[in-house]
C-alpha cells in the first residue's frame, strides 16, 4: 500500500478525526515557572532631558537597555524616529504619541 493510500485509509476510518478531537478535548496542564532575570548589563545615558525618563519608562518595559545602547552611534533623529515607529507599528509598543518625539530627541542626542 502506498503512503497516499495509507493516509486515505486512515482518513476514511475516522481515526485521524478521533485523534484530533481527543487532543482538543484534553485540557492542557500548566504549572507556574519561576526564574531569575539576569542583571542589567547597561544603563541609559542619564540626562536632564525629559526623553531620558520617558525612555526608561517606555522602552525598557519591553526590552533591555542593551537594545538601545548597542545601536550604531550618531544615526540622528530620523533613525531613532524610525526605530520608535517600528516598535509601535510592528511590535505594538504602547508608546503614547506625545512621548515618541521626546524619546527620539533624547536618543539622537545621547546615541
Task: Record the SSE blueprint.
Elements lengths: L2 H11 L1 H11 L24 H9 L7 H4 L6 H14 L7 H14 L1
Plain-language structure description:
The protein is an all-alpha fold and 111 residues long. Helix content is 57%, strand content 0%. It is built from 6 helices and no strands. The radius of gyration is 25 Å and the shape is elongated. The mean pLDDT is 85.
In short:
It is built from six helices and no strands.
Keywords:
single chain; 57% helix; mainly alpha; 111 residues
Gap from first CA to last CA = 66 Å
Average per-residue pLDDT, rounded, comes to 85
Task: Give, in order, the helices and strands.
Answer: HHHHHH
- Look at the helices and sheets and give the structural class: mainly alpha
Count all strands and give the number. 0
Largest sheet: none
Shape: elongated
| Poorly predicted parts | none
The percent of residues in helical segments reads 55-70%
* Helix count, DSSP H or I runs of 4 or more residues: 6
Q: What is the CA-atom radius of gyration, in angstroms?
A: 25 Å
Beta-strand fraction estimate: under 5%
